[in-house]
């Protein structure tokens, strides 16, 4: 058992920190990057591609570098530390993950090659109005006519759906079950309305009206298990991103307590505030343990175990993210509410991450339902 | 002890309910219900309707438009307004500067300002906080130096809520730099159109513009605009801040949002965890409302009850907890905060996260919750 990074992993972390951490070392550059569409720095995206970061999770024959979940987690955490707005989580881990797990070898090579090379941004159009974090599709339906498939219905919110060069779309199949399709967003029958999310990210409403869809992998097959597994992986990577954000939010808060003076003394003169910071640290460390464990379970690749670990980590991170985010603003006082100062954006992004793939209560509900089926939870089992 | 309202008070409550639900334009009340931002005109219109009926400033002295009501009736008035989604009278006018002028101002100042303040003909801003004087308000540095019939004001205020609409600003200014910090402060009324005064917007994390920085560069203010005595401003500020805390637990509004949230929840109410959260919050709100009632029932002399800090503390926490619940009900739809009405996702869901982020302020301003705990520990528990 080993919870530490090896030398290579350490080197990866430093390389990513060197690039992304430097690009957004001052908060103002991040603010500028999210101000205008596409909401991230295309040049930095290209640099990430050059470094092999965008192809990290994919097989070598698909144009990737075949790294494991731990490496992907390292990148996610570094992105989280500076709130990097580049769509690593949604485009690479999530949309790319679906392609990697669900496409034919030819499709994989083509799509993931372009994604890894930074030539194409992918979006997974999956969430639908009225549904909550399920692995199936209802509102977008697929119709078959011989070898051609068309899609109709609305997906929203689709992370980076307006910028994406290609959409991976989940849709209800005529015979039941959920299929996966590739859609060229510039082709007829697809309409996209993009907007900024509260944390400076991007999302879109994507409406299909008889849009041509190419089946991803085997046509007509129910892909629910594939979607579920990739959602679980993405959940754990979202946890890693959140951990990075929380770490920095805590550090910014402790720095502020040391520097901000009121009543003629630094705020850290007040034990009540120091204790609050200490509690934030406790939350962070516990969430980090869950996240690191879940990342290793993902590396193990057993779907049931992955799902359980993803749930438990997501629950812990959801609770911790709220605790840290809310306290970080509170302990900063008024300045924490402002857009120019970073801390509120950390809270905003933690809130967005929390609601991307299932919040704490969503996961808790599932855990509660199965509570009678086992006697104890053993992480080493 | 007795739980029911007296028949007179019950009738009073009916009367308030009737007025608020029929006389204030539905459009304004709908905007409040949907948690949309109100325009300046809507806020003014609503307050003027209340004022015409003697319902904008009932807690003021009778000769200045107040009502000779019991604390309980004031409470009922306040709660019914919130229930009916009527925008509360602008706090800067109705609960802050108005009562200070009525209590401490000269007759001339009362004459000049009170009627216009009650009717929102003048929109007041609060110029207390400064970049280095937040919780430690008394360390403020903005100076006012007497020069003939005028004060010359220099310095910077910050966090000035809705300062972009302000006609006048009531400020705490340092008039005696040598005195101990609380002793050298005065309470000054400043016309915001004065030369040398500039207002700059601050963008908050929900993307909105509700606070500002206000700069004073050699702003000349007639000496007549001093409220009360020179160097006694701190006493008036304490009086004002005490009032600010009393009405600050928005129990009625929070209850209303929670009730609305049940509609938003729909099928989700069948989830036992979600239902449990509702039940917990309802119970905590009940406890808070009962505490508020205990406080008003026992504050005969009109002085803030010491437990008003409990109301501020818990009231803001519950307000925040309910907004957090609404984000969770919105779930993935909460991402669509930047979408317009073409969105497939409900308006309440789109506004959920900005509202949640914005309400983080409630435990910071008006004496932060840490400061409230300090007050409870010191003045109530004697620690
Ligand atoms: C949205 C918004 C609107 C506002 N509107 C107005 C307005 O219209 N007019 C106006 O004058 N002001 C306004 N304020 C300012 C508000 O009153 C101050 O933000 C508040 O007093 C806190 O001061 P600060 O922000 O400087 O935080 P600080 O005083 O720096 O506090 C930072 C943290 O330390 C804690 N803290 C400070 N001192 C102590 C202590 N002794 N013991 C324990 N904890 C302590 C605080 O509770 C907080 O958590 C507004 C603020 C906000 C956020």
TrEMBL record, chain A:
<keyword id="KW-0560">Oxidoreductase</keyword>
<dbReference type="GO" id="GO:0003995">
    <property type="term" value="F:acyl-CoA dehydrogenase activity"/>
</dbReference>
<dbReference type="GO" id="GO:0050660">
    <property type="term" value="F:flavin adenine dinucleotide binding"/>
</dbReference>
<dbReference type="InterPro" id="IPR036250">
    <property type="entry name" value="AcylCo_DH-like_C"/>
</dbReference>
<dbReference type="InterPro" id="IPR013786">
    <property type="entry name" value="AcylCoA_DH/ox_N"/>
</dbReference>
<protein>
    <submittedName>
        <fullName>Acyl-CoA dehydrogenase family protein</fullName>
    </submittedName>
</protein>
<comment type="similarity">
    <text>Belongs to the acyl-CoA dehydrogenase family.</text>
</comment>
<feature type="domain" description="Acyl-CoA dehydrogenase/oxidase N-terminal">
    <location>
        <begin position="7"/>
        <end position="119"/>
    </location>
</feature>
<keyword id="KW-0274">FAD</keyword>
<dbReference type="Pfam" id="PF02771">
    <property type="entry name" value="Acyl-CoA_dh_N"/>
</dbReference>
<feature type="domain" description="Acyl-CoA dehydrogenase/oxidase C-terminal">
    <location>
        <begin position="228"/>
        <end position="369"/>
    </location>
</feature>
<dbReference type="InterPro" id="IPR009100">
    <property type="entry name" value="AcylCoA_DH/oxidase_NM_dom_sf"/>
</dbReference>
<keyword id="KW-0285">Flavoprotein</keyword>
<dbReference type="Pfam" id="PF00441">
    <property type="entry name" value="Acyl-CoA_dh_1"/>
</dbReference>
<dbReference type="InterPro" id="IPR009075">
    <property type="entry name" value="AcylCo_DH/oxidase_C"/>
</dbReference>
<dbReference type="InterPro" id="IPR046373">
    <property type="entry name" value="Acyl-CoA_Oxase/DH_mid-dom_sf"/>
</dbReference>
<dbReference type="InterPro" id="IPR037069">
    <property type="entry name" value="AcylCoA_DH/ox_N_sf"/>
</dbReference>
TrEMBL record, chain B:
<dbReference type="Pfam" id="PF02771">
    <property type="entry name" value="Acyl-CoA_dh_N"/>
</dbReference>
<keyword id="KW-0274">FAD</keyword>
<keyword id="KW-0285">Flavoprotein</keyword>
<dbReference type="InterPro" id="IPR013786">
    <property type="entry name" value="AcylCoA_DH/ox_N"/>
</dbReference>
<dbReference type="InterPro" id="IPR052161">
    <property type="entry name" value="Mycobact_Acyl-CoA_DH"/>
</dbReference>
<dbReference type="InterPro" id="IPR009075">
    <property type="entry name" value="AcylCo_DH/oxidase_C"/>
</dbReference>
<dbReference type="Pfam" id="PF00441">
    <property type="entry name" value="Acyl-CoA_dh_1"/>
</dbReference>
<dbReference type="GO" id="GO:0005886">
    <property type="term" value="C:plasma membrane"/>
</dbReference>
<dbReference type="InterPro" id="IPR009100">
    <property type="entry name" value="AcylCoA_DH/oxidase_NM_dom_sf"/>
</dbReference>
<dbReference type="GO" id="GO:0016627">
    <property type="term" value="F:oxidoreductase activity, acting on the CH-CH group of donors"/>
</dbReference>
<dbReference type="GO" id="GO:0050660">
    <property type="term" value="F:flavin adenine dinucleotide binding"/>
</dbReference>
<feature type="domain" description="Acyl-CoA dehydrogenase/oxidase C-terminal">
    <location>
        <begin position="231"/>
        <end position="380"/>
    </location>
</feature>
<dbReference type="Pfam" id="PF02770">
    <property type="entry name" value="Acyl-CoA_dh_M"/>
</dbReference>
<dbReference type="InterPro" id="IPR006091">
    <property type="entry name" value="Acyl-CoA_Oxase/DH_mid-dom"/>
</dbReference>
<dbReference type="InterPro" id="IPR037069">
    <property type="entry name" value="AcylCoA_DH/ox_N_sf"/>
</dbReference>
<protein>
    <submittedName>
        <fullName>Acyl-CoA dehydrogenase family protein</fullName>
    </submittedName>
</protein>
<comment type="similarity">
    <text>Belongs to the acyl-CoA dehydrogenase family.</text>
</comment>
<dbReference type="InterPro" id="IPR046373">
    <property type="entry name" value="Acyl-CoA_Oxase/DH_mid-dom_sf"/>
</dbReference>
<feature type="domain" description="Acyl-CoA oxidase/dehydrogenase middle">
    <location>
        <begin position="127"/>
        <end position="219"/>
    </location>
</feature>
<dbReference type="InterPro" id="IPR036250">
    <property type="entry name" value="AcylCo_DH-like_C"/>
</dbReference>
<feature type="domain" description="Acyl-CoA dehydrogenase/oxidase N-terminal">
    <location>
        <begin position="6"/>
        <end position="119"/>
    </location>
</feature>
<keyword id="KW-0560">Oxidoreductase</keyword>
């Amino acid at each position: 058992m080993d919870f530490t990074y090896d030398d290579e992993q350490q080197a990866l972390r430093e390389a990513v920190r060197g690039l992304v951490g430097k690009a957004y070392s001052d908060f103002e550059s991040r603010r500028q990057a999210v101000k205008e569409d596409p909401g991230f720095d295309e040049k930095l995206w290209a640099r990430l591609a050059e470094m092999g970061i965008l192809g990290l999770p994919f097989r070598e024959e698909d144009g990737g570098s075949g790294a494991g979940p731990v490496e992907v987690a390292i990148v996610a955490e570094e992105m989280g530390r500076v709130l990097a707005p580049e769509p690593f989580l949604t485009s690479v881990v999530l949309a790319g993950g679906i392609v990697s797990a669900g496409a034919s070898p030819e499709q994989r090579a083509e799509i993931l090659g372009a994604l890894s090379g930074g030539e194409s941004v992918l979006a997974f159009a999956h969430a639908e109005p009225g549904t909550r974090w399920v692995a199936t599709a209802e509102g977008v339906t697929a119709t078959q006519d011989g070898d051609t498939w068309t899609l109709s219905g609305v997906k929203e919110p689709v992370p980076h759906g307006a910028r994406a060069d290609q959409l991976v779309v989940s849709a209800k199949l005529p015979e039941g079950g959920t299929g996966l399709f590739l859609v060229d967003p510039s082709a007829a029958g697809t309409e996209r309305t993009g907007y900024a999310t509260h944390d400076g990210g991007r999302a879109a409403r994507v409406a299909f009206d008889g849009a041509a869809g190419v089946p991803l992998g085997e046509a007509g097959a129910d892909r629910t298990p594939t979607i579920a597994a990739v959602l679980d992986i993405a959940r754990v990577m979202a946890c890693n991103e959140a951990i990075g954000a929380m770490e920095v939010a805590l550090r910014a808060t402790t720095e502020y307590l040391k520097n901000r003076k009121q009543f003629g003394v630094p705020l850290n003169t007040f034990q009540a505030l120091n204790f609050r910071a200490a509690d934030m640290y406790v939350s962070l460390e516990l969430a980090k343990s869950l996240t690191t464990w879940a990342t290793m379970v993902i590396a193990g690749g057993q779907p049931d175990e992955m799902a359980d670990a993803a749930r438990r980590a997501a629950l812990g991170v959801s609770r911790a993210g709220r605790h840290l985010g809310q306290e970080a603003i509170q302990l900063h006082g008024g300045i924490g509410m402002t857009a120019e100062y970073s801390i509120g954006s950390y809270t905003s992004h933690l809130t967005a991450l929390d609601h991307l793939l299932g919040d704490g209560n969503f996961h808790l509900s599932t855990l509660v339902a199965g509570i009678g089926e086992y006697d104890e939870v053993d992480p080493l089992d | 002890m007795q739980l029911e309202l007296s028949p007179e008070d019950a009738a009073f409550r009916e009367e308030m309910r009737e007025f608020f639900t029929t006389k204030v334009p539905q459009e304004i009340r709908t905007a409040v219900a949907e948690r949309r931002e109100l325009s300046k005109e809507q806020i003014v219109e609503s307050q003027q309707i209340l004022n015409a009926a003697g319902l904008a400033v009932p807690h003021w002295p009778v000769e200045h438009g107040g009502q000779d009501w019991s604390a309980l009736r004031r409470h009922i008035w306040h709660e019914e307004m919130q229930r009916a989604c009527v925008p509360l009278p602008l706090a800067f006018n109705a609960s802050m500067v108005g009562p200070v002028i009525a209590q401490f101002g000269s007759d001339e100042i009362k004459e000049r300002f009170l009627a216009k303040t009650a009717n929102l003909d003048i929109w007041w801003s609060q110029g207390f906080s400064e970049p280095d004087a937040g919780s430690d308000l008394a360390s403020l540095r903005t100076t006012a130096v007497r020069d003939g019939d005028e004060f010359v004001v220099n310095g910077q205020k910050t966090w000035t809520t809705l300062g972009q609409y302000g006609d006048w600003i009531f400020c705490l200014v340092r008039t005696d730099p040598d005195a101990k910090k609380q002793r050298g402060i005065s309470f000054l009324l400043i016309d915001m159109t004065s030369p040398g005064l500039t207002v700059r917007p601050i963008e908050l994390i929900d993307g909105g513009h509700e606070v500002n920085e206000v700069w004073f560069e050699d702003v000349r203010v007639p000496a007549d605009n001093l409220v009360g005595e020179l160097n006694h401003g701190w006493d008036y500020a304490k009086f004002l801040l005490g009032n600010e805390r009393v009405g600050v637990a928005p129990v009625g509004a929070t209850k209303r949002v929670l009730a609305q949230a049940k509609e938003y929840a729909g099928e989700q109410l069948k989830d036992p965890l979600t239902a449990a959260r509702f039940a917990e919050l309802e119970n905590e709100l009940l406890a808070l409302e009962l505490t508020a009632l205990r406080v008003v029932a026992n504050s005969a002399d009109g002085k803030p009850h010491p437990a008003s800090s409990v109301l501020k503390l818990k009231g803001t926490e519950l307000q925040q907890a309910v907004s957090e619940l609404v984000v969770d009900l919105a779930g993935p739809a909460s991402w669509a905060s930047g979408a317009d009405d073409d969105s497939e996702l409900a308006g309440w869901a789109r506004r959920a996260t900005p509202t949640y982020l914005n309400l983080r302020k409630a435990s910071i301003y008006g004496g932060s919750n840490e400061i409230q705990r300090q007050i409870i520990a010191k003045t109530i528990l004697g620690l």
